[in-house]
Write a structure and sequence with these properties.
The protein contains 19 helices and no strands. With about 450 residues, it is mostly helical. Helix 4 (about 35-70) runs parallel beside helix 9 (about 160-195) and helix 13 (about 285-315) packs antiparallel against helix 14 (about 320-340).
């Protein structure tokens, strides 16, 4: 963990007052300038660990899925609902009212409560005796995790100015990869040695401790100048925020592109563990190690690199904040198709490592641009609406649709039905990349209108 904090401090540097004063985000520059460098880096470090914890608890089920299927005698459609939709329905839906509170109440307290709840429910998953009980436990995990991301995004936007925000979001998004590394690697080995139930216990309990440490060591940062939550009911605020997002052309295309990218990303990621075991006949430990290396280690470099490179290129031309994402998606599509049609294990390993690196390009830029394009008073709510769409459609429907397609194709193709289902979903990445291209056409003007 100390290495992660050092990396955070190295990557997010204080550019001195003169650099901060050059920020094109006047609502945030004076706030970021006033933050002690060590304090804001420590806060980001803790947010990364909490985000990682959420993804350990969220994604460990992907490497345990085949064992759960065999133990509880599930179909692929049931498995797809269990690993995606049952979690995403509550995770995405409750994120909106929680974000509404995060624009008004202590974000630190909301995050603390969230991490303790989801960690407890993850541990409880190990006691499930049947499909319904496990689904209810996963719903509990989704309820807890709903309280993490929107207030985290809001805190980061108050700690870092526009010129450093994509890098900060990239470091924050690397929590996904750290979670994948721990969840897949630990989950695979524990499943093979002790069974899937023990794996849930092992990853759930430490999160409770992390929540307590966060509460006692992190300070709530002051909000950006100009932050004034809108009056009115929550529904009215949600509608107003959504209309604002849809009225900004680049934000509209970012929302659509990010949703499609996550439909493909979650739909394939959550089934890769099953694919390796069922189609390529790998053991749980082998599967966990490959997924941990590709998604955890290499994917983390992709997240951090994408944030760094988009900030560098974006300093010269703001359109590169989204165009780099589009390029990554277009490069990844033929590689993904080759990945699912090949039985050559070394080739599959190389491709999944490249894919893990490229997968990190959509979230940092999408998160950062949403925080930069939206008014300060709507940032947490806008983050929750973005997360709502990418999680309901991406995390919820992505894995579920792959499972349904697999069941539909299995009578004709046998176990290869899963392979063709994954190829079909992967091709939708072309559509997602197109919307990032469209977003770039108006991004400079949209940023100028919001940030002056």
């Amino acid at each position: 963990m100390r290495h992660i904090q050092d990396l955070t401090q190295d990557l997010i540097k204080d550019h001195t007052v003169s650099d901060t004063q050059k920020s094109s985000d006047p609502s945030n520059a004076s706030v970021a300038e006033a933050q002690p460098v060590k304090g804001r880096n420590y806060t980001l470090f803790m947010l990364v660990l909490i985000f990682a914890s959420s993804h350990v608890d969220r994604q460990i089920i992907a490497v345990l899925a085949e064992s759960i299927k065999l133990d509880l005698l599930l179909s692929d459609s049931q498995l797809g609902f269990l690993i995606g939709l049952s979690f995403a329905l509550f995770y995405a839906t409750l994120g909106i009212p929680i974000a509404f509170l995060a624009d008004r109440k202590s974000r630190k307290n909301i995050i603390t409560a969230a991490v303790i709840i989801w960690s407890f429910m993850t541990a409880l998953s190990g006691l499930a005796a049947n499909y319904l009980q496990l689904a209810l436990a996963r719903i509990g995990v989704g309820i807890g995790e709903a309280g993490s991301s929107p207030p985290s995004h809001s805190m980061i936007s108050d700690l870092f100015p526009l010129e450093q925000r994509a890098r900060a979001m990239g470091i924050f998004a690397s929590g996904i990869n750290l979670g994948i590394l721990i969840g897949f690697l630990g989950g695979g080995w524990i499943d093979q040695l002790y069974g899937w139930r023990v794996a849930f216990f092992v990853v759930g309990i430490p999160g409770i401790i992390l929540g307590i440490v966060f509460f006692f060591t992190v300070k709530e940062p002051p909000r950006s100048r100009g932050h004034q939550p809108h009056s009115g009911t929550m529904i009215a605020n949600i509608v107003q925020c959504f209309r604002t997002m849809m009225s900004i052309p680049s934000q509209r295309h970012i929302l659509i592109g990010c949703t499609i990218a996550n439909f493909v990303g979650y739909g394939t990621l959550y089934w890769n563990g099953v694919y390796f075991r069922r189609i390529l006949d790998l053991s749980p430990a082998e599967t966990g190690m490959i997924l941990a290396l590709a998604g955890g280690v290499i994917g983390a470099f992709g997240n951090i690199f994408s944030g760094w490179v988009t900030d560098k290129l974006g300093a010269h031309d703001r359109r590169y904040y989204v165009w780099t994402t589009a390029l990554a998606k277009f490069i990844g599509i033929p590689l993904t198709v080759t990945f699912y049609l090949s039985d050559n294990i070394p080739l599959v390993f190389v491709i999944i490592c490249i894919g893990g690196f490229l997968a990190g390009f959509s979230l940092p830029s999408s998160f950062a641009m949403t925080q930069s394009l939206m008014p300060p008073a709507q940032r947490a709510l806008a983050a929750s609406l973005l997360l709502f769409t990418i999680n309901i459609i991406g995390l919820g429907l992505g894995p579920f649709c792959v499972g349904v397609l697999s069941d539909l194709l299995t009578p004709a193709y046998g176990e290869a039905g899963l392979r063709y289902a994954l190829v079909s979903v992967s091709m939708l990445g072309i559509w997602g990349g197109y919307h990032y291209i469209r977003a770039g056409r108006t991004l400079r003007d949209d940023l100028a209108r919001q940030n002056g």
